[in-house]
Amino acid sequence: MCKILVIDQDFRPLNPIHPGHARQLLTQKKAAIFRRFPFTVILKESHPDATVKDCENSHQLPQSAKSR
């Protein structure tokens, strides 16, 4: 599944978003293209209270699968 990378004005990475949502942000002038590869958008408004979901642990195998 394709996701678009997002950073805020302070260059902090945020959660990746669906391409349709990124297209809406670009059309509404709420974001700009930061980099074309990998495609990254930068938000024009800062959201200091934005939280980022930890995706690193969601891809790890359960303990029972590691012991095999």
UniProtKB/TrEMBL annotation:
This is RRXRR domain-containing protein. Residues 4-55 form the RRXRR domain. Pfam families: RRXRR (PF14239). It comes from the Bacteria. It comes from Limnofasciculus baicalensis BBK-W-15.
